[in-house]
From TrEMBL:
Gene3D superfamilies according to UniProt: Homeodomain-like
Domain of life where this protein originates: Bacteria
Pfam families: HTH_18 (PF12833)
Listed PANTHER family: HTH-TYPE TRANSCRIPTIONAL ACTIVATOR RHAS, HTH-TYPE TRANSCRIPTIONAL ACTIVATOR RHAS-RELATED
InterPro entries per record: AraC_XylS_family_regulators, Homeodomain-like_sf, HTH_AraC
Keywords per UniProt: DNA-binding, Transcription, Transcription regulation
Domain HTH araC/xylS-type: 95-199
Name of the protein described by the UniProt record: HTH araC/xylS-type domain-containing protein
MF-aspect GO terms: DNA-binding transcription factor activity; sequence-specific DNA binding
Length: 211
């Protein structure tokens, strides 16, 4: 998709519900359009673990998922609110107002996504580990370890969905053992590997664009 907006989703609930939101390394611009009431626009947080979110009844929600590392401070919600009924124009405005991700930040996130160690990532960028830490903390609010762990656990979960072989997945994703992988999946997604396979809501989120 585009450079800043990597996915657009929508949902509508006739009855109030609880939705579990999984960490994906992205923040979303979310439009809430209730059948009765004023529309609103918000920016989601960067989730560290599975988070329960209350969804009101009779409310249409549209989300524009921002690319990992996107600088949300560049967005003017009052400006974006003008396009609350035109998703195409809203996405275009986000693209136009977005602060470009620096090549250094992009490379750092790419390296960590490929399971390259923090030290090797720093070496690749030609900086110290402390400088890498500062780069990511300043631009994303998160440490290199956060991004490395998230990329690995999402990859492991996606592999489990594809082949359902826990021991092989743990090995291929460089976990110390199967128990280590299970603890990480439980920490990030709130379920065991076996429970993951029977949760359509989590599976859908893991298959959507993210980090």
């Amino acid at each position: 998709m585009s450079r800043a907006v990597i996915d657009i989703w929508s949902s509508y609930r006739t009855e109030a519900d609880i939705a579990w939101i999984m960490p994906d390394g992205c923040q979303d611009v979310i439009l809430s359009l209730p059948d009765n009431g004023a529309p609103s626009i918000t920016i989601s947080t960067l989730h560290h673990t599975a988070t329960a979110v209350h969804i009101p009844a009779q409310q249409h929600m549209i989300g524009l998922r921002l690319s990992p590392g996107f600088n949300v401070s560049s967005l003017d919600l009052m400006q974006l609110y003008r396009y609350r009924y035109d998703t195409k124009e809203l996405a275009a405005n986000i693209e136009q107002s977005a602060t470009p991700i620096t090549s250094q930040l992009k490379e750092a996130l790419s390296c960590l996504h490929q399971h390259i160690s923090v030290q090797t990532t720093a070496d690749t960028l030609g900086v110290s580990c402390r400088t890498l830490q500062r780069l990511l903390k300043t631009n994303t609010g998160q440490s290199p370890l956060f991004w490395a762990r998230l990329a690995r656990v999402r990859r492991a979960a996606q592999m489990l969905l594809a082949q359902n072989n826990a021991s092989e997945t743990a090995y291929l994703c460089h976990y110390a053992d199967q128990a280590h992988m299970s603890r990480e999946i439980k920490h990030w997604f709130g379920v065991t590997p076996q429970q993951l396979l029977s949760r359509p809501d989590i599976i859908h989120q893991l298959q959507a664009p993210g980090y």
